[in-house]
Amino acid sequence: MIIKSSTIQLLRFPFSFFLLPVYLFGISQPLDINWIRAALLFFILHFLVYPSSNGYNSYMDRDQSPIGGLEHPPPPERELWTITLVMDLIAVGLSLLLSYPAAMAVAFYILASRAYSSRKIRLKKFAFFGFLVVISCQGGLIFWLSYHASHAKLSLNVPITGMLVSTLLLAGAYPLTQIYQHRQDAIDGVTTISMRMGIRGTFRLSGLLFMLAFLVLGLHFGLQLELDRFLLLLLFFLPVSVYFLWWGIQVWKNPAKADFRHLMKMNIISAICSTAAFGSLLIWK
C-alpha cells in the first residue's frame, strides 16, 4: 500500500518535536529509569499518537489556512482517517507492553483528542473546556505517563508538581497557537480561548501562565533540594522569554504581527530551548 503524500503531510510528524519537552521532563524525574520502556513510549507518542491526532484534526477541520507546522495544508482524503485509526490501534496495543495503566492513559489521550476535533462532539467549540482538555492531556497526562512508564518499578506515585508544571507550560503556549486564526475559527463555528481574550489579552494570559509555571517549577525542584537544576533551566528558557517579550511588543504596536510566521518562530525557539533544558536534566542525572 502506497500512502499518499498529502496524508503524510497532514500527519505532521515534525510537529511532534514541539511536544517532546514534556516527555523529556517526565522521564528525567524518576531516580531509576527503564530505558527500554522509555524508548518504546517515545515511539508510541511521537510516531503514532501525536501524528494521528494531527491527522484526525486535519481531516475534521479541512483547513485551508496555515496550521501548526504546515503553512499550506493540502485537502485531506478518506485515506487519512483510516491511517489515523490504524495508528491509534497500534499505539494502544504497543502501550500494553508498558503497563495496563499506561495503555489506559494512551487510550484516554486518543479519545480526548478525537472528542476535541470530532464534528459530532467538537470540544474545541467550547473555549474554556476545550482549553482545559488540551493542556491537561498534553501537559499533566503526558508527564504522568512518561514518569510512570519510564520508572524502573512503574511507580504510580507521580509528582503532582511535575504534572502541574507541564500543564501550566502548555497553558501558556496553547493560546498563542490560536492567535493568528481567529477569523478562520469563527468561520468554522469554533470559539477559542484566544478569541475570548483578544490578541493583547492572549499575550497577557500566556505571560501570566508562564510565570505561574516557573514558580511551580521552582517549588518542584525546591522540594527536592535541587534548586541548582532549576537555575539551569531558567538559563535555557531565557531566549524564549526574550522572544516572547519582543513579539508581544511588536504585536502591541501592530496587531498584524500576530501571524503564523512569528508563531512558528516562537514555537521553534521554545521547542529547542525546552528540549535542551529538560534533556540537560537527563545528562546531569
State the end-to-end distance. 44 Å
- Apparent shape: globular
Query: Strand-and-helix sequence, N→C?
Result: HHHHHHHHHHH
How much beta, percentage-wise? under 5%
Q: Helix/strand-derived class?
A: mainly alpha
For the record, the CATH architecture stands as Orthogonal Bundle
Largest sheet, if any?
A: none
Transmembrane segments: 6-27, 34-53, 80-111, 123-144, 156-176, 205-223, 229-246, 266-284
Main location: membrane
Keywords: Membrane, Transmembrane, Transmembrane helix
Protein name: UbiA family prenyltransferase
List keywords for this structure.
285 residues; 11 helices
Would you kindly provide a written description of the structure presented here, covering whatever features stand out?
With 285 residues, the protein is mostly helical. It has a single domain (5-284), classed as Farnesyl Diphosphate Synthase (Orthogonal Bundle), CATH 1.10.600. The protein is built from eleven helices and no strands. α7 runs antiparallel to α9 (193-223). The radius of gyration is 18 Å and the shape is globular. The mean pLDDT is 93.
Quick recap:
Its main location: membrane. The protein is an all-alpha fold.
